[in-house]
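pinning this so it doesn't scroll away 📌
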Amino acid sequence: MNGTRPQGARSFALLGATVLMAGSCVLASAAEADDGGGPLGVTVVASGVAAAGRVGVLVDADEVGKPAGEHFCTASVVRSEGRDLILTAAHCLGGVDGSGVVFVPGYRDGKAPYGVWKVKRSFLPGGWAQEQSEDSDIAFAALAPNAAGEEIEDVVGANVFAPGTTTGASPVTVTGYPDTSEQAITCTNRPSVHSRTQQRIECPRFSAGTSGSPWVNGHHEVVGVLGGHEQGGDTDDVSYSVVLGTEAAELYRKAGG
C-alpha cells in the first residue's frame, strides 16, 4: 500500500481549504477550542495548542518538499517507553512495514515546524492484519530519531494512550487534517455508543484525510482514534472509532507503550 490512503477511505465530499460554511459548520480560527473549552459540536480551524506538534500528517516520503496537499492521513504522538510512538488508524498504514512514510507534526501551510520524522516500524493488530476487521482499525508506528538524535516525544510532548475508558465519560476534542486542507481542524463533543465495539461522535466536516485523528479528553488522554466503522464513517459529519479495549492495550504494549 506504500502508505497511500486506501481507495474509499472517507472518500466522500472533501473539505476545500478555503471553503466557508454557514452556521455551526463555519471554519474559523478559535483558540478557545484548543483545550476543549469551546462550544460542543462546532468545527473550527485549529490554532495554538491544538495545532502544536502532538498532531500531524502522514505523507509518502517521496512527496516531502513537493507542493502542499499530498498528506493522506492524520496521526498523533502518544507516550511510550521509547518516546518514539505515534497512533493512527490501521487503514492508513495497511500492510506497510513503515518504510516510505513520514510523520510531519504540527503541519501547516506546507511547513514542517517540528521537522519530518521517518516511520521505522508499524504495528497492526491481528484483527486488521488477518481480515481488516473494522473493530481493529488502530495502529501504532515507531519513528526514527531526528538528525540531532532526539526522539519525537522529547520535541513535541505526547498524550497518554488510555484504553478501557468508558465511552462518553467526558467530552473529547478531535483534531485532524482533511487531505485538501493545509491546516488542522478541531471539534469538541461527547462521544456516544454505536455498538459494543464502536463509538461515534458528531463533528462536522471531518472528511478524507482525517482518519487517524486522536480523540483527546480533558486529561490529555487519547480515548479514541478516527476510523473503525466504514473506515471512519460514510458522512463528513459523524465519525467513528473502535472502542479501545483489550486488543488495543495489547498492541500498545507490543509497540513499546
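📌 and the second one:
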Amino acid sequence: MTLSINAAFDSGNIRLVGIQGDRVDLEIVRDAESDFYQWFYFRVAGAAGRRLTFRILNAGGSAYPFGWPGYRARASTDRQAWRTVDTRYADGVLEFDWTGDAQVVWFAYFAPYTMERHADLVARIAARPGVTHRELGVTLDGQAIDYFRLGTGKTQVWLYARQHPGESMAEYWMDGALDWLTSPAAERLLSAATVHVVPNMNPDGTRRGHLRTNAAGVNLNREWHTPTLERSPEVYHVLAAMDETDVDFAMDVHGDEAIAANFIAGFEGIPSLKPEQGDAFVAFGRRLAAHTPDFQTELGYERAQPGRANLSMSTNQLAERFGAVSITLEMPFKDHDANPDPEFAWSPERSARLGVSCLEVLDEMIAGR
C-alpha cells in the first residue's frame, strides 16, 4: 500500500523529503520568520503491516539538539493514547521505528494539545459556576487570547502557559489545574485568593505548529519588558490585565527539551530582590517535592547572578514589577527519570496531575498559613 505523509492540520509540522521502500525521510519546518524548529506532528496513512523507519534529517540543526539523546518520539493510533517508540539520534539525524496493524498512525514530539482541544477546554471551563471568562485581545492571526478568573480572595495569583507553543505539556498542566480550580477542593484557596488563568499564551504558534514563536516569529518570553501590539500582542494584553489586578504569585508553565525531570526556575537575579520573595520560592519547591514524586529540586537551570536577571522574561519581569513570587515550571519532553514510565514517559495525564499538585501546595501556602 502507498504511504502518505500529511501534516496539514491544526498544530501539524513536517516536510516529506522522500520515501525509499519502508524508510521515510523527513524535515521539520522552521517557525515562521524564525530559525527555531523542533516540534513535529504528522500522520502516516498506509502503514498497516509494515515495519517503517522514519528519519528526521535536520534534527541536528534544531533549536535544542542536545535534547535529542535519550528522547523517545510519541505515536498514537487514536490520538488519545500517546506511547513512546524506539528512537535513536546520531550524526544529526533523529530516527524512530514503527510496526503495527493500524491503517493510520500519528507521530509527535509530545502529545499535541491543538487549538481545537483548547476550544473544548474553554467551553468546558467557561460553563462552570464561579468562572468569569474574558477575551483579553486577539493575536496577529486574529485568534482569541482566552482568560479565566476564579475566586474572591485578596491574594492575586496568575497562571499562564504555552508562551512557547511546542511545549504542549503546559496546556495539559492547565487542563488539570482548571479542573481542580472548578472543584470543591479549591474552595479554601478561592476564598483566600483570586486566580487568573491564561491557558494558552500563543494560539498562533500552536495552530501553525511552531516550537517557540508567534505568527511574527517572536519569542514571547523575551517581550515582557516592552511588548507591542505589532510584535507581541499576546504579552501586551496579558501584562495590561496584570497591571489592572496586581500580581502576588505567578507561575509560567513550560517544557524543557534536555532535562529529564520536573523543576522550577526563579528570579534571584532581579535588582530589587527581597529576602521574603526568595524564601517563598524555595519553600514552594521544597513543599512540592515533598508533595509528589513527580517533582524534584536537584536538577534545574543555573541561578542568575545578583542584579543580572533578564527582565524581558516573564518570571523576572513580574518579580521585579510587582514584587511577586514568580515561578517558571519546566516539565520534560523525555521522562521524569526519578520515577520513569517506560511506555508513556512524561505524559499528558502526569502533566495534569502535576497541575493539581502545584495548586494543592499553593493552597497550603496561601490559605493554610
